[in-house]
Amino acid sequence: MINIGVISFGSGAVLFLVLTLVLLTGQHGRSRKNALKFASIVSTAWLGFTALSIYYEGPFFSYLVEPVRSFSWLLFLGYVLVSSVTNAHLAVQRFRRATLFVVGFTILLVAIVLLRLFKGAAVTNFHGIDILYAGFLLLSVAGIVLVEQIMRNAHVESRRAVKYLCIGLGIMFAYDFYLYSTALLFQKLDVAIWEMRGFVNGMVVPVLAIAIARDPRLSLDIFVSRRMVFHTTALLGTGLYLLAMGLGGYYIKFYGGEWGTVVQIVFMSGAGLVLMVVFFSGRVRASLRVFINKHFFHYKYDYRDEWLRFIRTLSSGQPDDRLRERAIHSIAEIIDSPGGILWMRRMNRFIPVSSWQMEVSENDVLSSDHPLIKFMTAREWLVDIDEYERDPELYNNLELPEWLENMARAWLIIPLIVHDHMIGFVVLARSPAQHHFNWEDSDLVKTAGRQVAVHLAQLDASQALAEAKQFEACNRLSSYVMHDLKNLIAQLSLVVTNAARHSGNPRFMEDAITTVDNSVHKMNRLLSHLRSDTIQEKAADSIELCATLGDVVKTMSNNKPVPSLDCQAAGIHINADADRFGAIIGHLIRNAQDATEDDGQIIVRLFKLSDRAIIEVQDTGCGMDEAFIKERLFKPFDSTKGKTGMGIGVYEAQDYVYKLGGDLEVISRVGEGTTFRIRLQISDASENDVK
What we know:
The protein is an alpha+beta fold and 691 residues long. It has 4 domains: 4-218, Up-down Bundle (Rhopdopsin 7-helix transmembrane proteins); 226-296; 327-536, Beta-Lactamase; 538-686, Heat Shock Protein 90. It has 22 helices and 15 strands. The longest helix has 64 residues, at 439-502. Mean pLDDT is 79; it is low at 642-646.
């Protein structure tokens, strides 16, 4: 009979041989993987050589290989430990010194083995201690220490792979420690423990395989034919099914009484019929093939390269209408399609908005309630027209529009979905390179379609925003014009009201003519704004503030309380449009007059602070509370004057002051009054004029 040791070491050699062959696949040139391959090759040789030595009952020449085997595993563990510690430079230096020491120790053990083989065991015995066993014991201790250090220093994210490596090699070195410590204790090897050593080493291989599969630095590229896996899986499933049916038939026969045999035959025949129906089902076979491709094989695409190319194509150029054409191109080049057409939702229809190397008719329109649109929205599927023609039931007998069926080059219909809403779809032309369109192509194209949908939705949103801004500018212009007209009408009404009493007064008539002339000038300016559909700022002039404020105060003196001007610094200039600046100061004075009793006081004050001109419009009116100032004062179209107010005077004043590079501050107390304080940058023309 074959010795148990031969079976033990032989099985271990076979398992390590398989591991070695697996490690020879994939990328090369990595230190950790090369060290593992070396250790696996040496372990295979050692186990095989030991099995032969036991079988032929010859001297144990395997002792010559065992030190090299232990050294190879220590070398591999050293590489793993160096990559785990923080201070890599210091660890590499220590690793090199330790490697030299272990190499020397291994050579010493080999010399001791040779001496023992030729001179006998007594030569290696020193005061009752077998030096060879002690040396092997020290190597096993070194292995256990390295395993412990690797587990202690492993990063959290790498422990998933390292723990299985440490478990496998830890068991191997622990068994060696137990073997040689027992041999030193009893001064001889335990034959049973020795013979089981091959089994223990063989059991380590599956654990190492798990660690290798989880470590990307030990990359394995093993490819098996999809056809082979498919047929193997189908055969295995058939076998398991027949086994289950056989057990069921046996149970029926054993417990079925007189009808047991009949029921068993019927049951087995029905089981065979079900198996044949399932086996020849195209849908089941396709589902099985997709399952195998998804879970057993590397992917067809290099997704990093594909995604970088897709984003580069999609984002190149300006975000204009050409984006639609780039969107078609970016999806098409994934599967080498030579052209495509884009439909987008417009109201309740999907109309063609762009094409790339493919012709389309403007009449090729789909309603939003068409079965094709409902199907793609509900399922989020793309439609493979070739597959649809082969198996319409797969698409629930979907009806395609006639113009799409007649489109000669049409191949794929890809939905563009954003947040479960279908905003459009792309029809791609048939690819001359893609002969098999599978689940992986479908997943990638659908994902690209979702990304394209986001970009197209953003383009539509940007265009809608631009249109909204145009309407906003028009509305703002109308509001400003109405506000200015309201003030002009108020001035002209005051002139008409006082004309009956002061028509004979030359000074009144002079002021009236000046007021009318000023109103005509402002109305002409408003008309020019209306013709251009926007508020165009005139080139900024250098205006002298004291004179400008004097003109505004004089104009606003027709209402009560009459404002007064306090110019504490003359010759201060700023760069602004005189008409627009005068208008916003007039708005602030008019608001102060509306908030102040006729016997109250309004002061317009000008002074200089550092390099800033300070303008204050102070009144003794009703004042405002903090909440009103914070939430309502600068909010457009929010007025406390009822139907007579527009609510944009203060808003316009703040907006224009900010455009001049200044700021507007409001100080107010309820029942005490309000002060609007404007700070503006002084122009260079003020340097020689300020007194």
